[in-house]
Specification:
Keywords: Oxidoreductase. The protein is α/β, with parallel strands linked by helices. Helices cover 30% and strands 29% of the residues.
């Protein structure tokens, strides 16, 4: 069955003078084939566990995995066979193999952005619904191609923008809709990629060796603008509405990064980047709300600096909603649940949110066929916004959307 709600059942009641028989038929679970699910990484720590969340009981079942090599595929299949309690098939190489499996209803794809398009198109061609990690391609052009293919084949999509399902964001959206802070006039975001995270210069972890070029070259579509800022802007527009115009300035202060080992000691290696770590973004939303967002990176954030990692304020005429996190990676609210404040008072939750919880909500909505889960069309819209931000920064002018 889909979750535990009775609305997901088909009910038939037969009545006669001597009989009152009720037959209940539940929808079968959607059988998932997962491309890029290994024994470590984001897919293994967040995406796969979310499919096992109690709210999804009976809604999904993992039946096949696919990785780049036969050995890794077999290892993954063995691991998840234990987790899901039944044998799981192993594929490797061309995504068309797992997509053509008649037992697979939906294909989840969690590979690096440069491979999104080539992996997902055979899945769509096989007329399979799909999950695709954000940013859904290395460029808006690729995202549009994926969206066009999905429309042509009539398949449904879900994109990995799970931050819109966070407990704090859901509550804030509800409070604003109820008028708790009056009419919203403006919103302000302050975020920071801490130097201690070692993702971007001036310090880069040796453990991310295979990701140096991936993260640090614009051509790979995995920049801080497309990934992290894209996630945050999805949350902002989900709560407050879409942009109608945007102006932006960017800056690259750390073009060279020192590579450090697991203990944080320099290895003697350096890496270069063409990706700005500072973005100043302003604009107006359809509702007339003024947006001001400032993202910066590379500064030290240890004890004693007093540096704030993530603050997002939404100002209404009668009060303020504020999200806040001082965790090292707090500027990634799609991964780490922020604290929520209403008019200066912290909002407490009986069950704190987390990324697995948020992803499971998206999966549940997709299974039900309604809700707020992001689709490939949302990915196109966000890609166009990010392009406008980049274009504005390059041309020094406001861009209308």
């Amino acid at each position: 069955m889909l979750g535990s709600s009775s609305k997901n059942f088909l009910h038939y009641r037969f009545k006669s003078p001597t009989c009152n028989l009720r037959i209940i038929m539940s929808n079968p679970p959607r059988k998932v084939g997962f491309i890029g699910l290994s024994n470590k990484g984001w897919a293994s720590t967040a995406l796969a566990p979310s499919l096992l969340h109690p709210r999804l009981q009976g809604a999904y079942d993992l039946v096949a995995v696919s990785t780049t090599s036969e050995a890794s595929a077999q290892a993954s299949a063995e691991k998840y066979s234990k987790d899901f309690g039944h044998p799981i098939k192993a594929y490797h190489g061309d995504s068309a193999k797992i997509a053509s499996d008649p037992e697979v209803d939906l294909v989840a794809v969690a590979v690096k952005a440069p491979y999104h398009k080539q992996v997902i198109l055979p899945v769509i061609e096989a007329k399979k619904d799909f999950f695709l990690e954000w940013p859904a391609g290395i460029s808006t052009e690729e995202t549009r191609a994926i969206a066009e293919a999905a429309r042509k084949q009539g398949v449904r999509s879900i994109i990995g923008l799970q931050g819109r399902h966070s407990v704090a964001l859901t509550k804030a959206k509800e409070l604003i809709a109820l008028g708790a802070i009056g009419t919203v006039k403006s919103t302000n975001v302050l975020a920071h990629f801490a130097r201690e995270a070692h993702f971007f210069p001036p310090i880069v972890s040796e453990a991310l060796n295979t990701q140096y070029n991936y993260l640090l070259e614009k051509k790979n579509g995995a920049t801080s603008l497309r990934i992290a800022i894209g996630h945050q802007l999805d949350q902002l527009t989900h709560v407050l509405g879409d942009f109608v115009s945007v102006s932006a300035t960017d800056a690259l202060f750390y073009p060279v990064g020192t590579v450090v080992d697991a203990d944080g000691k320099p290895t003697g290696k350096t890496v270069q980047t063409d990706v700005p770590e500072h973005y100043s973004i302003t604009g107006f939303l359809e509702s007339g709300i003024l947006v001001n967002a400032f993202w910066r990176g590379g500064y030290a954030s240890g004890e004693g600096t007093g540096r704030r990692q993530y603050v997002w304020e939404i100002d209404g005429e009668e009060g303020t909603v504020r999200f806040e996190s001082n965790a090292t990676m707090g500027a990634l609210p799609a991964m780490f649940e922020p604290d929520l404040y209403l008019n200066g008072k912290k909002v407490e939750f009986a069950t704190p949110g987390n990324v697995v919880e948020n992803i499971s909500v998206a999966w549940k909505e997709f299974a039900d066929g309604k809700g707020n889960y992001a689709t490939i069309e949302d990915a196109v819209k966000h890609g166009e916004l990010l392009d406008a931000i980049d274009r504005s920064a390059q041309e020094g002018r406001r861009i209308d959307l």
